[in-house]
Amino acid sequence: MQIFGVDIGGSGIKGAPVDLDKGDLAEERFKVLTPHPATPDGVADGVKEVVEHFGWTGPVGLTFPGVVTGGSTIRTAANVDKSWIDTDARVLFSDRLGGHDVTVVNDADAAGVAEMAFGAGRDRKGTVILLTFGTGIGSAVFVDGVLVPNTELGHLELHGHDAETRASSKAKEDGELTWEHWAHRVQKYLAHVEMLFTPELFIIGGGVSRKADKFLHFIEDIKAEIVPAQLQNNAGIVGAAMHAAGGDGGR
Ligand code: BGC
Q: Is the pLDDT of residue 250 over 70?
């Protein structure tokens, strides 16, 4: 079965039809730039462009980079326009797409669900935490394969700072940090999350997962196993489609 997945990120809106049996894109993805400011209207236009590029008329699963409750209501908007807060995103996107069946899920939760089913978390029991490092830091926490939704561990306070402002990949770019310097910050962040949750496994997702060889060796003194995500930057698209299909770890 195929469902369309769209991943709304701080820099791009990307989507493709997803083959749910394989957990992979059925066609090459298409991407448009996220508008700035990333208002509901501007983002909805971007989503429409991506979906129409494929002439898709079936159900669409979307991710959102903030807390999403009930598959629809946006509760936080750390890296997009604040006017998203309390928006009914399902209604917004469905109207803009001309009545498609739409669901919305947090971006990191979507990536986590995809990694647990088809990637680095397959068959892993106990506590598994996926962290996505991008414009912000997203988190997805699983206990015996079941998602605890909307955990928002990227906003833990570390040394008086919101952790994502210090250790996201945007923080690396903005501060022109070397891999080693940035990895040192990631290490402190992981140590803090490990102190709170003692996971068996950390999965490192987001764009940096493709460059794991540049920084993972700098991360020491963490007891949990640390691995890069396997679906890399497609995990959000795949997870969004899985969520729309209802195969999302019980949400
Ligand atoms: C948001 C999370 C999101 C993460 C990654 C954070 O700023 O609060 O909901 O998952 O960024 O996009």
A: no
Q: Is the CB of 239 under 6 A from ligand 1?
A: no
Kindly state if the Cβ of 171 falls inside 6 Å of ligand 1: no
Domain that holds residue 129: 122-230
Residue closest by Cα to atom 10 of ligand 1:
138
* Alpha carbon of 138 to ligand 1 centroid (Å): 4
Same structural domain, 217 and 127: yes
Mean pLDDT of all residues in 65-76 = 95
Find all residues with CB under 8 Å of 46, minimum gap 6, and list them.
Answer: 8, 13, 32, 33, 34, 35
8 close to ligand 1 (CB < 6 Angstrom): no
117 found inside a domain: no
- Ramachandran class of 234: left when φ > 0, alpha when ψ lies in -120 to 50, beta otherwise: alpha
Contacts of 45 by beta carbon, 8 Å cutoff, 6+ apart: 35, 96
Q: Is the pTM of this model over 0.85?
A: yes
| Same domain as 84, residue 16 | yes
How confident is the model over 89-123, as pLDDT tens digits?
A: 999 999 999 999 999 999 999 999 999 999 999 99
Pick from 131, 152, 170, 204 the residue to mutate for probing ligand 1's pocket: most ligand atoms within 8 Å of its CB: 152
Average pLDDT for the chain: 95
